């Protein structure tokens, strides 16, 4: 009698290896990876995904607060800039248990500020970025100074935040440190040129360079929101406000554009692409391949050998996302990719990837935007 067992059957009985069924329900991550959650039944999969869900973070300090750090920023369309978030993170990391992190925002703010480490949020909803009113903003900060007597003020050293910080410090007569590259509990480091740094004690107003703090905090703030006093009606001496002139996005320097529609080799219908750019009011950029082919001007090339852009919105259509292209968009806030290939490298950088043919998506988007404009 033969005792031979076929090899497959023997290994199956001796080694009950559980294999992942590639057809199981899966999620496509923002990085473009297809992820299968382990577990044989729906219940097991749910338990596994819950086990991997991020745990709730503890509150940094529940108070009571005797001291305060004030972070000031301008919100843009309800959002805080990355640099402002870093300033808040720096304030929260440095704050002692009895120090309250207060965020004063000029303009409506819709971000989850508790997750950023903020204990108290004060919003000047009546601030209108279309009007140039530096004296009113400085006076508003001086009122906050009188109300909260903060130990230190932190602002991003860039754009309107940097300007306001300088004005406030000079007009209030408090010490100021600009371009702060690193902060310790009592000291800070600022570049002094020629590869040298200055190590200085904390100033009352500190303007922070990009990258000064990591915004991924192990804790949250209390996130209590309270209405702010109205901006004072201050006299702006020597300033005549001519209002905001709307520029033509098509003629705007790409480095200054807030919204860019960029085309790559996957865009074949150029008239449709340009119609969409005009309709949505976007500046036009392109990948090097699209420029080399003569479809776009050299000045429109984005990437390592082209322009480095910092738009809030970057819509990349038919662009693979080669490393040289990604270098040019590293400072962009929201990247949306349209590509027929879900595994294209751009999907790893993009916040949202639409897997679709470029012409079909542009046509649908164009119709949607035109329809929206008609009903408005
Ligand atoms: C020294 C050096 C410097 C460089 N500098 C730059 C630079 O500054 N900027 C730059 O961009 N590149 C630069 N490059 C080139 C870079 O390496 C890539 O070759 C280039 O970015 C690719 O352009 P692309 O993504 O448009 O084209 P492709 O690589 O051809 O990708 C096209 C993409 O479109 C998708 N696609 C195709 N058809 C469709 C469709 N119908 N609908 C939707 N999607 C579709 C494809 O899936 C693909 O992902 C440089 C290269 C070198 C060596």
From TrEMBL:
KW NAD (keyword) present: no
Pfam families: ETF, ETF_alpha
Protein name: Electron transfer flavoprotein alpha subunit
Keywords: Electron transport, Transport
Organism: Hydrogenophaga palleronii
Residue ranges of every copy of the Electron transfer flavoprotein alpha subunit C-terminal domain listed in the record: 254-330
Cited SUPFAM superfamilies: Adenine nucleotide alpha hydrolases-like, DHS-like NAD/FAD-binding domain
Electron transfer flavoprotein alpha/beta-subunit N-terminal domain boundaries: 71-185
InterPro entries: DHS-like_NAD/FAD-binding_dom, ETF_a/b_N, ETF_a/FixB, ETF_asu_C, Rossmann-like_a/b/a_fold
UniProt family annotation: Belongs to the ETF alpha-subunit/FixB family.
